[in-house]
Amino acid sequence: MLEVAADNLANLQTPGFQQSQVVLATRPATGLSGLQVGTGVQVAAITRDTSQGALVPAANPLQLAVEGDGYLVLEGSQGERLYTRDGTFHLNADGELVTSAGQRVLGWRSEQGLFQGELVPLFMLPTHTQHGSATRATESLTTRLQIGTDGRLQLRLPDGSTQTIGQLRIAQFTNPAGLRAIGRNTFAVTAASGPPHMGNPGRDGWGTIRAQATEASNSDVGANLINMSRAEFLFRANLHVLDVADQLWQELLEMRRS
């Protein structure tokens, strides 16, 4: 309980963090002359609270938040699929939309106005840009990029028109609490979570995209401080039980010696 509460409190400022809580259960009882005697308590599970944190305005135009259910889709360093609620993104030197850890954001790329069927890294640097001017072009793209609530990424062109570059996709899970946290605010699929169900933001119950916003941690300071105090109280109560038991055994031994 102390470790879980401490982790929750440590991640108060972590974007998209989902706090955990301990589920306790009784240990199997032992039978003695027809009577059942309990053998204490054990941790049955550590569950994650998947409720949405508060949405906080951000200055970065590529700072995104999912308002509602779902996770943004990433590509890990080994090409694996990862999922996150932390939309702290930026463009790398190659014009790819990436996380702070360099993981590429996946979505549909627009080809002549049509979206591809497979999820691919979202690439935003125009193909005619030379490598030497990539940094300047990336900075220019950041200011000209617009991201709608439906996840569409549109680039404002010099003539005032817009060009659709791609669209973010959102993954939902039958049991999102079953996802495995692997660090850097990302999650991996498990048998408990079930496979991802992909959808467009804002369609059929999928969450929408909020640009220039960050989802704050849903960690509850008050509840976690109470849990820490509760754990301390329960620990002291158990110590008192052990002290009483030890005292009774000492008295029993003295009675036997006498």
List its salient traits.
258 residues; alpha+beta; 4-stranded antiparallel beta sheet; 3 helices; 22% helix
Summarize the entry for a quick read.
Helix content is 22%, strand content 36%. The chain is built from 3 helices and 22 strands.
How would you describe what is shown here?
Strands 7, 8, 11, 12, 13, 14, 15, 16, 17, 18, 19 and 20 form a twelve-stranded antiparallel β-sheet that branches. The protein has two domains: 2-49 and 220-257, no CATH class; 55-215, no CATH class. The chain is of the alpha+beta class. It contains three helices and 22 strands.
Series of H and E elements: HEEEEEEEEEEEEEHEEEEEEEEEH
**Beta-strand fraction estimate:** 35-45%
Shape label = elongated
Radius of gyration: 26 Å
User: What structural class do you assign from the helix and strand content?
Assistant: alpha+beta
How many strand elements? Answer: 22
Counted up, domains total 2
User: Uncertain regions: pLDDT < 50 for 5+ in a row?
Assistant: none
Task: Kindly report the average pLDDT value.
Answer: 88
Largest sheet: 12 strands, antiparallel
How far is it from the N-terminal to the C-terminal residue, by CA?
45 Å
Helical segment tally?
Answer: 3
Topology:
Blueprint: H1 2-10, E1 20-26, E2 30-32, E3 35-37, E4 41-48, E5 55-57, E6 63-67, E7 71-75, E8 81-84, E9 87-91, E10 97-99, E11 104-111, E12 114-115, E13 120-121, H2 134-144, E14 145-147, E15 152-156, E16 162-168, E17 170-172, E18 180-183, E19 186-188, E20 197-199, E21 208-211, E22 213-215, H3 221-257
Antiparallel strand pairs: 1-4, 2-3, 5-22, 6-9, 6-21, 7-8, 7-11, 7-17, 8-19, 9-10, 11-12, 11-13, 11-16, 14-15, 15-16, 17-20, 18-19
Helix pairs in contact: 1-3
